[in-house]
């Protein structure tokens, strides 16, 4: 089982949802664990949840099953980690936010705006030499949008990384046993 | 809202808790954080603490008084505090405790923390930290020890408020000792030490993310029992986890019920007496041919608190190629990490075996017990043909010095049967594990996972104080050390002498970094780059005025108030050992002059398949046996299908 580095080209994309205690230093422990195992993170986002005592980390990575299992087990050993699930693409809604600054002047602005309209995304800043576009969506949509905009010259680009929830009425935090984590 | 200081990035205080900055708890006895720390240690039943003071932990040291219920043992180097706590923990089964200052004090203990983490030793390390306001400013003696130790601790805390101290200590001890044991760091800011708080006991722990599994779940026990009934070449591969779990009784019982041979890792030496005929000894790089061969040819390998370390498996893909695997471990992350398990069992070893043994007996009652006669015949043949032996021409000193293996054999033969054995790291460690006759569990203390030179003396001191605490000193401690390893912590002779740890120290002085030299001999064309120590160059014929060993270990021992002896010949060696066994009021050191070209055999070269084990140069018994083993297997399965 030589699995170093854990992320190989051609490995499958996986999305992990990790519920952690909402306290400082937790992200450092989680991120350190990925780094130590040569696990190349594709995207990572963290924020508080519907429960103020719990934060949710969404990690996407291209990785094979065996190293992924080991990472999940190692993550589970961190005391601040409450729950880890691997989200199944078929039953998951996932979204990413992107801000794209495109080089667009009078000569081609209308072409870019046409693309913006087609993709139902927004222009959030206009300048004689540029347009800044805000887009949300699943990875595929964003990749497609970027593919079209590249042609005009992307000056600057920032992506939030995926956030994801399962479809249906249940919350992941329901699986965290015990009541609110307080008293510290 | 809490203070938006840079501290938030490290603090153990949650951002959102209300009234964070105010003293909300007002019941209990009012005291400072430093007093609360001492009280918490007392309430936790701590009896011995190892450490060394400094500015950032002084408030706590100021509270250690004559009336304090635990004993404080002053070491000369913080790394030694850590290893002493490890030796103490392994010999007593209780959590070892260290108390050191911030910055360099804390960084000095990192090696011991990493060592404890690799070998699953329960330990709590309390480090001083600069005041809250100074954190992140590069204040004098500030080091982010929580950050430095993330990858090598089981868990860590930065404590910023006095009020948190009793709860954090309660949690730290619980975490260190339960589940897979390990080191926990508690970094105590000066602010927390000097702040006021209200002390109450016991404390409620808040550990929502910590739920170790101790009992086996599901059908795994039945599956495992069934596998026993279908296997004709079973092997119990027992590791340090079984020792930590105190499962010696259960291991012996399982071996008896299943008839399977037991092979152990370095860590598990002693869990089954060497005199038990089921015990084939240690497997792996320097294991016995019988143990390594048993695993290689097994059809069922039962890993019990063992983790398929590369020193055990050699080349992983060719390790135990024909075996199905049952893996019992309290840490789910170990199962399937290196080798896929056919039956994974998560749980505490003793607890799992308590359930597995009756299940196996039940299954045997229905399906019968496989006949292991063939298996044992082939193993016994390996055992007889290839014993751990030092009486070979290759092991004979050609320069008139002692044979190191012979010295170990004498030490073992002449020792009190209750002896706790400790080793440094190198050839002497392997000879100790091979040639000491272990008859009792928890009688062997050695740095396995990290292989830390300098571990021996402090660990021996910890074990000696543990022996005094828990066994009225009835268990003497022998340290078998290398001249190289010993020099990495020899300053602790002061601690041993002044703190009354009458350890007996056997230095197998070959005047070289022997294990490295062995590799240079075998794999680097005898290019002895940087391995000569020149601390044992004088011979028995050297005139006293020409004696220039650096250091002179006998004088070194005497300089610290200990007894120093030297042995060049077998007669001197026997006399010295006798004297050492008689002296119990102070440490004794014997400088045994041994041959520098003795080698540890058997050996599997790093990364080579275990079938390539070399018994002696030119003899690779498993290569032949591998072919023959296939025949045995064919015979056995033929018999089974009848
Ligand atoms: C702290 C540390 N540094 C380096 C090593 C690498 N190393 C392993 S064995 C060894 C030589 C040990 O020599 P000695 O203690 O004299 O024992 P011997 O092998 O001669 O019995 C060395 C340098 C180590 N294990 N630990």
TrEMBL record, chain A:
Its EC number is 2.2.1.6. Dimer of large and small chains. Catalyzes the conversion of 2 pyruvate molecules into acetolactate in the first common step of the biosynthetic pathway of the branched-amino acids such as leucine, isoleucine, and valine. The keyword Transferase applies. It comes from Bifidobacterium lemurum. It catalyses: 2 pyruvate + H(+) = (2S)-2-acetolactate + CO2. InterPro entries: Acetalactate_synth_ssu, Acetolactate_synth/TF_NikR_C, Acetolactate_synth_ssu_C, ACT-like_dom_sf, ACT_dom, AHAS_ACT, AHAS_small-like_ACT. Residues 15-89 form the ACT domain. SUPFAM superfamilies: ACT-like (SSF55021). GO terms for molecular function: acetolactate synthase activity; acetolactate synthase regulator activity. Gene3D superfamilies: 3.30.70.260, ACT-like. Chain A, domain 2. Keywords: Amino-acid biosynthesis, Branched-chain amino acid biosynthesis, Transferase. The keyword Transmembrane helix does not apply. This is Acetolactate synthase small subunit. Belongs to the acetolactate synthase small subunit family. NCBIfam families: acolac_sm, PRK11895.1. The lineage of its organism: Bacteria, Bacillati, Actinomycetota, Actinomycetes, Bifidobacteriales. Pathway: Amino-acid biosynthesis; L-valine biosynthesis; L-valine from pyruvate: step 1/4; Amino-acid biosynthesis; L-isoleucine biosynthesis; L-isoleucine from 2-oxobutanoate: step 1/4. One of its GO terms (cellular component) is cytosol. One of its GO terms (biological process) is isoleucine biosynthetic process.
UniProtKB/TrEMBL annotation, chain B:
Its cofactor is Mg(2+); thiamine diphosphate. CDD domains: TPP_AHAS, TPP_PYR_POX_like. Gene3D superfamilies: 3.40.50.970, TPP-binding domain. Pathway: Amino-acid biosynthesis; L-isoleucine biosynthesis; L-isoleucine from 2-oxobutanoate: step 1/4; Amino-acid biosynthesis; L-valine biosynthesis; L-valine from pyruvate: step 1/4. It catalyses: 2 pyruvate + H(+) = (2S)-2-acetolactate + CO2. Keywords: Amino-acid biosynthesis, Branched-chain amino acid biosynthesis, Magnesium, Metal-binding, Thiamine pyrophosphate, Transferase. GO terms for cellular component: acetolactate synthase complex. Pfam families: TPP_enzyme_C, TPP_enzyme_M, TPP_enzyme_N. InterPro entries: Acetolactate_synth_lsu, AHAS_TPP, DHS-like_NAD/FAD-binding_dom, THDP-binding, Thiamin_PyroP_enz_cen_dom, Thiamin_PyroP_enz_TPP-bd_dom, TPP_enz, TPP_enzyme_TPP-bd. Residues 31-146 form the Thiamine pyrophosphate enzyme N-terminal TPP-binding domain. One of its GO terms (biological process) is isoleucine biosynthetic process. Residues 222-356 form the Thiamine pyrophosphate enzyme central domain. Signal peptide: none annotated. Its EC number is 2.2.1.6. NCBIfam families: acolac_lg, PRK07789.1. This is Acetolactate synthase. It comes from Bifidobacterium lemurum.
